[in-house]
Amino acid sequence: MSKITFLGTASAVPDRNHQNTHFIVETQSGTILVDCVGNPIVRLREAGIDPLSITDLVLTHFHPDHISGVPLLLMDLWLLGRKQPLNIYGLDSVLEKFEVMMDLYEWENWGGFYPVHMHSVNDPDRMVIIDRKHLNVQASKVRHMVPAMGVRITLPEGTVCYSTDTEPCVEVVRLAKGADFLIHEASGSMGGHTGAREAGVIASDAGVKTLILIHYDPVSIPDALKEAARQSFSGEVIIARDMMTLPIG
Ligand SMILES: [Zn+2]
Q1: Counted domains in the chain
Q2: Which residue of 79, 85, 92, 158 is surrounded by the most CB atoms within 10 Å?
Q3: What pTM was estimated for this model as a whole?
């Protein structure tokens, strides 16, 4: 059975119990890590997930609270003896910056480094980025301070959509249409971000079954976030917690 594990749930400033927002989706057709921060190997092993099992890495946008763990992940997978290719997906501008960052680490000198296949997302409107038997992933540009993309992961068991950092926008409504789960950020109503009540409006408009709030300030009171979302959404509301696992289907 496919499942999501939330490796972090905090907005930009984490605390002891809330790492920055990133999560992993284990499916029969691949293991997808969405963003990567902190000490990825430690976190993955804590979750009981073999880091070498990751097949795909999605970079939603180039902000440190979403991608700062990537160089360490890539290096550690190499040191752990990875041979299989790793697929990395991101908007054009994100992958350009990613390459500059890795060049600063001189990754071209990492002898015997496994192949990295970069998949540039250049069509902002629901572009298919992974198309395998039992796994389809689409990406769509959303509205943040920097170029950012949300994703929709479709599996035989169900569909999961992730907004990443964005202000409330029709792009997320379109991307999440009819999904079983919408994982939406809830940093608060400020430029480029979304509050819990607004996330509820997006979930209602998209007609999703369950709204999962993530990327919230760790000092927030979970029940208050839930109540705010319930003002505008009648489906189930879950507050994501670090290391929480969610079965799909
Ligand atoms: Zn963020």
Answers
A1: 1
A2: 158
A3: 0.97
